[in-house]
Each structure stands twice: as structure tokens, then as C-alpha cells.
Amino acid sequence: MRKSSTLICAPIMAESVAKMVVEIGRAEAVGADLVEIRLDHLKVFNCNQDVKTLIDQSPLPTLFTYRPKWEGGQYDGDEKSRLDALRLAMELGADYIDVELQVAQEFIDSIQDKKPEKLKVIVSSHNYQETPSVEALGNLVAKIQATGADIVKIATFALDITDVARIFQITVHSQVSNVPIIGLVMGERGLISRILCAKFGGYLTFGTIDSGTVSAPGQPTIKDILHLYNFRQIGPDTKVFGIIGKPVSHSKSPILHNEGFKSVGFNGVYVHLLVDDIAKFLKTYSSADFAGFSVTIPHKEAALKCCDEVDSVAKSIGAINCIIRRPTDGKLYGLNTDYVGAISAIEDGLRGSLNSSLVSGSPLAGRLFVVIGAGGAGKALAYGAKQKGARIVIANRTYDRAREIADTIGGQALSISDLDKFHPEDGMILANTTSIGMQPKVNETPISKHALRSYALVFDAVYTPKITRLLKEAEESGAIVVSGSEMFIGQAYEQFERFTGLPAPKELFRKVVESTS
Predict the structure, then answer these.
(1) 420, 455 contact by CB (below 8 A)
(2) Percent of the chain, pLDDT > 70?
(3) Whole-model pTM?
(4) Mean pLDDT score, 328-334
């Protein structure tokens, strides 16, 4: 059963009517509720014949848009022909017409007595530069309503993810005054506007049939809207979770947590959050609706400073990877689940290579444990290994930063450039916690292959790709390798349980990670 009445619209932007008809069929097959027919993309347009064909051949409700260049579209001809084509679409049975605010009054006046009962006129305004203030947006909504619009459409651009909050505010406010509104924010930082409009009461969202074929920057695919974000299950009471990072689009956390939520019947949605300034983000999205976050590079240390309370282990590490908003008082509680997953995966790898009956305690005890990277994840792993009795070496691009952490935890510091010459003993452990080797830079590695001969086990926190160049070369050098997906799964278990208060579906998590790697 769907919780939200928000519709999913597929933009149809083919260059011929025949191709458009095919695309409309595909839109229906992937689950769209209606199609936006972009007449401005047609290379040849025979108005009377083509509009009739498109309406007759569409199994879905149709929205006709003939976007001029001055509003970000392709049409470059005279206004009369353009508006005549939209009036014809109305007469032939279109369900919606999109007309730009600049010409809306004139257009609506011209159809006053001819408008069919079922037709809804969407009056739209596009701002490709920024998202104005709440006050300016409120005035814009009033101006659009005054034209006689049936539905208000505002599309703005996100310079920062906090811009989207203003569109949510306007969307909610419009519900109160009973104005159907489409409020969307373009760009990667605006992605949540396209998913959470279902929670805040937006009239529709746009989703593409194929990835990469977008009618505006930042549009997700219909497949992702429906199956990754479980869009039909998002409603006013849905709790919002997400992964805060920069970059963040590579993260598989949304797949994992949304599949988990679905499997246990938890009313939540987990989204990608491209965040530039975490303090500003947390201050802006401070309502109980935004219930918890995972935190990744580069925000793990800054996030700690934003929390009202921090778990003692995370405090020692100086970094967190999880924030929970306490339902009782709205306070932010920070913790670190990074090191648990990684350290136990490394221990399991070592135990597998040893006769485990001869090992009491941790197989890390007494080992030299070299951590590459001095960020939040590096600190977490160094702290976790130290607790297990390992001797710690921190290698980092900037030596001073490595020295700082080594002094705090109690260990040695190295510059990353000295790693190739560093082999005081054999049987060491290497853990890369930087993004070196992550997609798209899959040919990079933090250490040369010949230096890997001194290591018994190599762990890489990067999990896209699953087998990085570092792991491939380590395996060829005879080391045990542990992929970052192990750390990813381990930290996700604990976060899921904190988010939901329910046991994590561990088998499902492992299956999801294996099927997506």
C-alpha cells in the first residue's frame, strides 16, 4: 500500500515522435505514473499530427512542456506557435500543460472558457543559479497562484544541501493553504528534494528511464526512486536517515539500510547527503524527522564537535561515524562503529591463517600494525588495534599530522613517502584508511608492490572496487587480504540497530554487499 500521493513523472526527450512513443512505453514498464512530453526536443515537429499521436499512443497521463531557451529549454521559435501547440495539446486531451510564469497569465486568460475539466495547468519557475530565501520563495508561490495556476512548480539550484530545507518549508506551508506544489532542487546537493518530496507533500517528482538522460541536473532514475529509496512507502511520518560525506554518491549505505528497513518493516528512508559544512547541515536539519546519520570522509572529526554527547571510545579516537538524534530530547549522540568491523575482520583473517587453537587472545597482540591515513578512520583503526595489543605506526602524507596521532595513541609516525623503505620486521599488518585507489582512480595505490612482501595481512578500507590495486598486489605478494566491504558490513550492523532499535538482518546485509560489489 502506498503511503504517499506524490507522483513519479518520466521526462520524454527523444528527437522523434516514434522514439517518444517507445520511451513512453518504457516509462510505463519501469513504474512511472505520468510522462512529461518535451516538445522542444523534437527535431521535426508537425504540430497537429504529432500531438494527437503522442496523446493517443500514451498509456499514461501526459504532461506537455514546450520549454523555450529563455527558461532553460531547446525551443527557439516564436511564442505564438509555441503557445498554440500547448493549447492544441489541451484540446486533444492532455492531462497537464506546463507553462512558464513569464507567459502564464496571458496563456491562462486565453483558455479561460475552453479549459477541459480534467486539464491541470502547471505554472513553472526555474532558477538555475541558486535557491532564494524563504521570503522570496513565498512571494514567488503567491505570484504563481495569482495567475490562476492549478499547480505551482518551482525548480531551483542547490549551492549547498541546506538550500533544500527552504523548498521543504515552502512545500509544507503550501499544504496548509491547499496549493498543490512541485518543489525541486537541481544538482547533486539537491537530490533529497526529489526523494523526500513524498514525505513533505510535493505533487510530483521527476525520474529518468535511463541513468544519464536527465532533463535537469541531479535527477535520479525511476528504478532508484522506487526500489532503492522505496518511494511509495515514504509518508509524513517516515524517519529520515542518511550518509553525510563529500564525495558521497559512491556509497552503498543507502542500498543496505533501505533494504534492511524494508525487510523488518521499519518506517524509514536512508539517503545520500552531499554535505560541505556539517555544522551548518545539522543546524538546518534539526527536527525529529531527521533521526540519524552515518558519517564518512571528510567529516568524521568535525562531526564529533557537533554532538551534544559522545561515546567514550569515540572521544578517545577523536572521530565519529554515526550520529543518533535522541527521541526524548532531540540531542545529538555521536559514536564510532568503524573500528569494530575492521578489527574483527582483520583478526578473523589472521586466525584463518594460524592454527586458531594455539592462539589465545587477539592475533594482533604484539604485531606491528601500520595505518595509512590520519583521518577519522585511521585514528579509529589505530585505536582499535592498540586496544588489542598491537604496536602502532601511522603513515600519512603530512608527517606532522601522523606524529600528532601517534603521540596521542602511543606509536611511531612516518611520512607516506617513506613507506616503501619501511620494513623493520616481517609479518606486519597494513591498513589503508585513505581514499587512494577508490573509484574512479582505481589505478592508484599508497605503497609499491615490492614493499608488500613484509606484510602478513593487508586491509583496505576502500570498498569500491571490492578488490583494489593494493589488495591485488598484496595477494600476489603472498599476504592475506581483507576487503573494505568487511569493515563496511560490520559498522553497518551496529548503526542499523542504533537507528531502528531492531536486530540487523546480517544475512541480508552480506547478500546485498556481495550482489552490488
Answers:
(1) no
(2) 99
(3) 0.87
(4) 97
300 counts as catalytic: yes
- The backbone torsions φ and ψ at residue 254, rounded to the nearest 5 degrees and listed phi first, read -60, -40
Q: Tell me the pLDDT tens digit for each residue of 31-75.
A: 999 999 999 999 999 999 999 999 999 999 999 999 999 999 999
Q: Give the residue from 8, 499, 1, 2 showing the smallest Cα distance to 256.
A: 499
Say how far apart CA 318 and CA 304 lie, in whole Å: 7
Residue 203's nearest CA partner among 158, 128, 152 is: 152
Tell me the three cell numbers of residue 487: 569493515
Which of 115, 300, 379, 388 is catalytic? The answer is 300
**Residue 352 CB burial class (10 angstroms; 0-12, 13-18, ≥19):** exposed
C-alpha cell at position 160: 549547498
Given 33, 98, 115, 153, which residue is catalytic?
153
Q: What is the DSSP string of 332-345?
A: EEEE--HHHHHHHH
Contact 389, 365 (CB under 8 A): yes
Pairing, β 391-396 against β 455-460: unpaired
- Reported as a pLDDT band with limits 50, 70 and 90, residue 514 is confident
Give the chain's mean pLDDT. Answer: 94
Quick check: 24 and 61 in contact, CB under 8 A? no
250 catalytic per annotation: no
Q: Would you say residue 357 has pLDDT above 80? A: no
Residues 6+ apart with CB under 8 A from 52: 92
Residues 6+ apart with CB under 8 A from 170: 134, 137, 138, 141, 154, 181, 183
Q: In the numeric block, which cell numbers belong to residue 91?
A: 484540446
Amino acid 476 reads E
Average pLDDT rounded to a whole number, residues 224-239: 97
Give residue 448's pLDDT band: very low, low, confident or very high (50, 70, 90): very high
Tell me how far the alpha carbon of residue 215 is from its chain's centroid.
19
pLDDT confidence tier of residue 358, bands split at 50, 70 and 90 = low
Q: Looking at 41, 338, 379, 388, which residue is catalytic? A: 338
Q: Which of 241, 246, 240 is nearest to 296 (CA)?
A: 246
Three-class SS string for 431-466? EECCCCCCCCCCCCCCCCHHHHHHEEEEEECCCCCC
What pLDDT band is residue 354 in, cutting at 50, 70 and 90?
low
Q: Please give the Cα distance from 444 to 314 (Å, whole number).
A: 30
Mean pLDDT of 385-390: 95
Quote the CA–CA distance of 494 and 408 in Å, as a whole number.
26
Grid cell of 34 as nine digits: 505520468
The one catalytic residue among 41, 115, 126, 388: 126
